[in-house]
Every structure is written in structure tokens, then in C-alpha cells.
Amino acid sequence: MKAKAMETKLVVRPLVGCLTHTHFWEGPCRAGHKEDMTPEAENAAADAAFKDACQTLQQVSDEVDLLPPLDVRYTESFIVGQDVWRKVEEDLDKVDFFLCMNWRIPKLERYGKPIIILQNGNEGIDFAAYCRNIGLEAYVCMDMKDLDEITHLLWVRKAVQNSRVLVLTAGSLPTFGIQSLIRDPEVIRQRYGMEIIKVPFQSVFQYMDQISDEDAKPIADKMISNSTDTRVNTGWFINDIKYYLAVRKMLDIYDCNVFSTACHELCTSEIPQNRKFTPCICHSLNKDDGIPSFCEEDLNALIAMVIMQYASNKPCFMGNPNMETDEMIRLHHAVPALQMNGYGTKPLSYKLWAFTGQGFGGKLQVDFTENRSEYVTLGRFNPAGDTMSLARGKVLKTEYDDVYCSPYYYIQMDDARKFMHNLANFGHHQVLVFGDYLTMIHKLSQVMNFQIMEPKDCKI
Q: pLDDT band for position 172 (50/70/90)?
């Protein structure tokens, strides 16, 4: 399988700029004490600044892969030596952005790379404004808090670009269940860098047939043993795991790290009826393993899911919305994950029930009131793929149904009616993540070039 997008690293070239002078003088741009302004004193100060910068770099997020920092020292000519440029150009094709520290780097814009300036004052702001004016992506950071935030936004963008999606499809446009979906995957590739590979949904079954009971049984047994209430036919449940393992095999073959399958078309083929499985558990297991996995070929939900998962470092739920009251909606689907409070946290408890009345098709029944955050964030993209619906709410209660799409999550929000009207611009499936990510996603929209429409922006 292609490396998980969440394992992506930003490759950063740190450059520590420093202005030194060839001799002592004073004037309208330079004043001080002579003993501090000799070439020897200034070079000693530059040495100390470089050392301090190297220590600062130890605090950089683990989403960043730092190349060796370079000492970019220049004199009052403001010309960087060719020997320094040659070092800057090493592995240049791997560099995602330059991190400029201390002083600006004259003519760094020649490389066309994004630039982050970590400098609290006029130098950073001035350099950033110049870069932006000439069409170069640039950000200014006053401190490590700024740097962590901006690097995370750029990391999310790169992770999205490193996502390659396997869609098992029936080939129909629109699909049976979703008319509002993004119909041309090329729109997504051009705007966000994600590739989407579509193959017939029947392709998975040759791999499913190659998986033995012995391969699938350990995963099935573990899930059954950890369930607080098991109401699925345990003999048939192994077929859900075989489907999951077959999908993972196909992710390997097609070098993908995101998954979806047709649902309505798969159902009407009656293959799940004959094989006694549903794809729901596959989606849940994928998401808990860091692989975005979305229902029904819904590419609008795909973009929201990858952005929200990578931004939050949490798996996402995806479900159908209904308005219950003017201040409450309900979401329901059968694809929650167990790491909803964050990867590496304690898994949520669950019941393992059956999707069907016959007892086949496992589904996780998970209580979202175990959310450690006060809020949940909801999102979805429009059929053009350029605007995201964004909303926030609180989970009030969870209910379960013994068959079909369940759990049901009841979510309080300021204006549920306006929220539903707003979705007329986007379509129905909502992606949900634990936590309040409104501010972060607004900032991501600027970095990733998409618009945001909240319920308050909806006219009707």
C-alpha cells in the first residue's frame, strides 16, 4: 500500500540569515557601540545567532523533516555568496519550503519555493509582503506558536496531495444514491492534488476468495471479544473481515491510501446477500488505521474527510442528516471509528451488532457522548469541489437501531433549520470529527484555495 498520507513529512530547509559588515561606521541606518560593531564582534554575534536558531529548531513539530540548517551570512552589499547558494540548492527538488530565521535572505525568491519567515519584527513582515506581492507564497511567524500552526496547515495540504484514492465503482454517473456528488475526479486532482483510481466494484471478490478463514479469524475474534454486546452472526462476521483484508490487498496493488466503494449498486447486485457481508466494518477499521474510508463513492465527503482527519489527527464519521427540531439534527450511518478522540487515545467502547435482519454485516455501535471535546465539527464539499459547508454542534445523545444504518447521533446546533437549508448547496452526507475545528479549517481554506459557507451565510 502507498504510505499513509498521515505519515507524510514536510521537508524544510532552514536558513539562518545574518547581516554583518566589512568594517565599522555609523550613520542613519547603523548606530551602536564600536566594540560591538567590528567585523569580529558581528561575526561572533552571527555565530551565536546560528547556534540559537539550531536550538530553536529542536522544538519544531514532528510533522517536519528538517534538512541541515545553513548559515546564510552576507555583508552590506546584500549579496549572498555563490558558495552558499550551491548549498541551498542541494536536494532542492525535495524541499517543501524554506524556513528563514533571524534575517531575510536576499534573492531567495529566485527559487519559487514557499517561504516561512520566523522573525518577530519588521524584517519578517517586510519580506513576506514583498514575496506575496510578486506572487510567491510566504508566511510570517512571530514565535513558535505561529510556526507550529502554519507548518501544520502546510502539512495538511501536503498530506492531501499525497492521498491516492481507490474507488470501487459501478461506473454510473451520478451514482444511484447521490446526485450531488463531484462527477469529474479530475476537478479534485487539479485543485487538491489527490488522484482517484476507479475500478469495478466486482474486482475485490477475486482477492476476497484468496483469503482464508485462518487469515481473517484473529481480527474477527478480537473484535468479538472486545465487544460489550455482540448481536451479529459470528460465523458470518468473518466475511466482513475477509472483505476488509481484500480491500487492503487492493490498496497495495493500486498504490492507494484512501478507500471507497459503491454501496447501492453493490447492494442491488445481491453479492453481499450471497456472501453474507457489508462494507461497513471495512470503513471503520480503515479509519482507525489512519486510512480515510468513505461510503458510496461520495467524493464531496472524501475531500472533507481527508482534510478533517489530517487536520485533527482523528478519524471521522460520515452520516445522513435529518432535522429533528430547530436546534437539533440527527446523523446516522454504520461507520463510526473507535479512535474518535484521537489516534493513540483509548478506543471507545462498542457493541457489535448486525446491519441486516438476517444477522450478517457487522456494524459498530459507538456512543459519541464519550467525546472528550465540547463540540463536534461537520463538513462537506459542494458538487463543484470548491466550497466547504462547515458547522459546529454538540452531541446530546446516541441511539441504536438493531438493523440498517445506525448509530443515530443527535446534535445540538444554533439553527438546525438553516443548517439543512444550507446543505441544499452541498448535498446530504456529513463528515463529523470530534472537536471544534472551525478556525483551523478557515485557515486551511486560505492555504488550500477553497471557500467556506456556514449556515449563517445561507440566504435560503
A: confident
